[in-house]
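Q: Convert this sequence to structure tokens.
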Amino acid sequence: MLGQQKPQWMPGQVGLNAGALPPSGFTYVNMDLNYNAGTFNDQNGNAIPVNGTYNVWAVENIFYYVPSPKVLGGNLGLMVMFPTPATGSLDADISNPYFPNLSAAAGGGGIADLWLQPFNIGWHFKRADFHVSDGFMIPTGRYSPGATNNVGTGYFGNHFQTGTTYYITKNKGTSANLFTDWEVHGARAGTNNTSKTPGQAFTDEWGLGQVLPLKKNFSKLLQVGVIGYDQWQVTANNGSFSLAGVILPASALPYYSVHAVGGQINYIAPPKNISLFFKYEHEYKSYSSLLGNTIVFGGTWTLPVPKPTPKP
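A:
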């Protein structure tokens, strides 16, 4: 019921179109994410008394570059996420197992960590899109052991990710989607000269979507769907942590998990290379973790390179 209770990856960022890598050229994504929780569940999934709420806002500025030449039959892309202004620590570190202070765990504000994804390759098949990537969370955000105004995670993370979109119908209007993230962590400094390496975590995000034309020429589309996510700690923590001045082994901390379901709506304008999205997901169960709601909204814009030839 204490310690590292949320990993680096904030679920809810993907949902529909999980396998679609941006087209060749430059793409900008603005993603605004809010996670709000007032409940903390113990290792049996039962709520325990808490003080305050855990409320995090993050404004992600994401930049993609996808060159035209093919690599291994797919498109190779580069992605960087920075800067990410945030209010509240993007990493929940609950240190009191009997009366967690959620407000103290999310009391920071500033620029969060740098996300760099130098390897991202995507393939487009007749009935599916698929991509794999490897990225890094670099702890550039403010972090100090025991501080109540942290905004960074305080440790390095490696994230291996996959995304799949399977088109159920021939016209690609109906799709099933699955995204996965496996993260491996470096050590993070704690109070009283302790150091803990958070256990590895696995996240899946899924969705079932349907595209509806708003105009007969398909220049404006509406996409709606059911989405959700699941997140687990999959290996034990290493190192030690301090609780009330007592040094304890980090491996004694219980594993956490959380599960959510919700909906997504997208507005897509293919001729203008823009789209807008809104997602809401409710966490219905968690173990040794927070229990709350995730809201994500924003938009994307692509500058294609080379510029496509207009169809007659």
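Residues 209 and 225 are 4 Å apart (CA to CA).
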